[in-house]
Amino acid sequence: MSMKTIATDVSAAAVSPAASAAAAPTGSPRRVVREDIEWCDVWISKADQNSIPHVLLVGDSITKSYHGAVAKQLEATASCARLTTSACVCDPVFQLQLEAVLTGWQFAVIHFNNGLHGMGYLESEYRLGYEQALKVIRKLQPGAKLILVLSTPLQPTSAPNNLNPRVDARNKIVKELAEQFGAPINDLHSISKNHPEHYADACHFGSAAKGLQAGQVVNQITALINGKPGVGGDGQPAR
Fold it and tell me: Can you give the C-alpha Rg of the chain in angstroms?
């Protein structure tokens, strides 16, 4: 994710939402908004083994950055896979990426984040795309325990900081869908809110913050594997 990409995405929808809405009239094919670079990275470790549970981290470059630490901390308990991508839940390509991974392996826990890419989409489109993704997960992985993740804020003194109200709006949608689907929330947003020292750039984090994120992800996943409610980094039940 780059500041250039974010700025380009916002100009597509936030500056002129009426024009964006007009581009997708009722009954027309879904509107697709792409970034200048799109990417997808899938990593399935111990793909040929079923002796321990498999867990899946779905997210973007931030998820990819803490995946290694999570996998190491969970190695005695579970095998940790990742599906990290620049595609927004609104993009039909994201649904295809998700389906490809979910049809190949069985997962005990799916830790799901999507929210910082695709700012060219309206929040109404985001809700529909996110809900569709959750339905795909429930259909293809009915036995998996699901954790929904609040997206991290942008660095508060950076130029893209003006997007934080939209990050908050998307996180509100995630909370509503978590209640609808009966899933615990992992609040990674609060860890770095109002902590500019946590950041390596406008979007990504330094080693200390990544360690905090990884620890909270491990706590949540371990609790669900052990048959307990999801818990946050403070040890309290996730909401």
Answer: 17
Residue 180: which pLDDT band, with cuts at 50, 70 and 90?
very high
Among all chains, which residue has been given the structure tokens 């209640």? 179
Which residue is it, tokens 């942008």?
154
Q: Supply φ then ψ for residue 165, to 5 degrees.
A: -60, -30
d(C-alpha 215, C-alpha 212), whole Å:
5
CA distance 77 to 146: 17
Evaluated on CA atoms 164, 129, 177, 238, the torsion sign reads negative
Domain containing residue 179: CATH number: 3.40.50.1110
Note the Cα 175 to chain centre separation in Å: 13
The answer to whether residues 227 and 145 touch, using CB atoms and an 8 Å cutoff, is no
Q: Which two tokens stand for residue 179?
A: 């209640």
Residue 20 has pLDDT above 90, yes or no: no
Quote the CA–CA distance of 63 and 194 in Å, as a whole number: 20
**How far apart are the C-alpha atoms of 91 and 73, rounded to whole Å?**
32
In a domain, 64, yes or no: yes
pLDDT tens figures, 95-147: 999 999 999 999 999 999 999 999 999 999 999 999 999 999 999 999 999 99
**How many domains does the structure of the chain reveal?**
1
Instruction: Kindly tell me the sign of the dihedral angle through the C-alpha atoms of 83, 84, 86, 90.
Output: positive
Taking residue 70's Cβ as centre, other Cβ atoms within 10 Å add up to: 24
**Domain assignment of residue 144, yes or no:** yes
Does any domain span residue 211? yes
pLDDT at residue 230 in the model:
53
